[in-house]
Amino acid sequence: MKTPILLTTLIVMSASLSSPVTAGLTESLYGKMPDGREVKIYTLTNSSGMEAKVTEYGAILVSLKVPDKDGKPADVTHGYDTLEGWLGNSSYFGASVGRFGNRIANGKFTLDGKEYTLLTNNDPGGMPCALHGGKEGFCKKLWKGEAVSADGASGVKLSYVSADGEEGYPGELSVEVTYTLTEKNELVWEAKATTKAPTVLNIVHHTYWNLSGDPDKSINDHELTLYAANYLPTNAGMIPTGEKAPVAGTPLDFTKAHVIGERIDADFEALKFGGGYDHAWVLDGTGDGDLVKAARLRDPKSGRVMTLATNQPAVQFYGGNFLDGTTTGKGGVKYQHRTALCLETENWPDAPNNPKAPTAILRPGETYHHKMVHAFSAE
Ligand code: BGC
Description:
By secondary structure, this protein is mainly beta.
């Protein structure tokens, strides 16, 4: 068959814009930072019709297309269409957050006898804290991307060196975040870090999920299971008190699948502090390096299911309570209240100030390793 001239021209043009790196992986220019540095975007695909887009800016997951029960793929994440949109990403959509994801009370912690002060950029209940890495955390940095492949799966490794003293944190930290899309329909996010001086860290992946593929639709009808018999009660500033409390008999009990909206308006202090679900659950597994089950999320209409496994001790389930229709995202959609949710595996919030929490300290010679496996299916 003869290819029409116009089509040939278009094919040649698009090939020059987007270059295949390996099977299932292409890279292209996404845009430029305000200072002129070029920013790449990578597209990962597998043979079941999944597609992940990842950018060097913020080591962000830009989109993830997942087939529904009829095989129809749709993007199941909130975010922006262009780099310009992502530059103003105040909700941490899709981001790799650090150094310390979640909250540090009063923006202060003590390490080896020395007190460190961070910028406070959040104040739930009028109580100031440092949230998600500060003014210009990892999610606002330009990382360096590199194509990788392992066991036939395509991936992208993003590297960033955080200077000693950046955002108030001690120690030069070298960080690598890798996204891999496997033939088993898994999106794997992995963070590794080493440091030149003792520091604290909690690198967190912050995608907002709406498995329906319709970003206008509430996630309150999704069904959620959390493999956690305990949660961390907080003060009004959403800082854990240090006690673990059983979820049994509370609206935070997701040990069996529950529709998210079912108990969301219950008269329960934790739900009032969070304005809905916005808490850390302590995972039942040991979290000592082996992956443990964290969550299972299902959208009954599309049939899409996401299961999440991790090597971290806790998961923050944030139900999109602060989305309020003022952010315009992909396709011009204004993201309304609770139209997406986050499942952030991590250490305990405020771990550096909490002697009961697993340590958040990384010392020279040690390697920080956080792994999340998001496995997708449809039923
Ligand atoms: C937190 C929320 C916060 C949101 C910001 C979540 O990780 O739990 O309290 O408002 O991030 O996007």
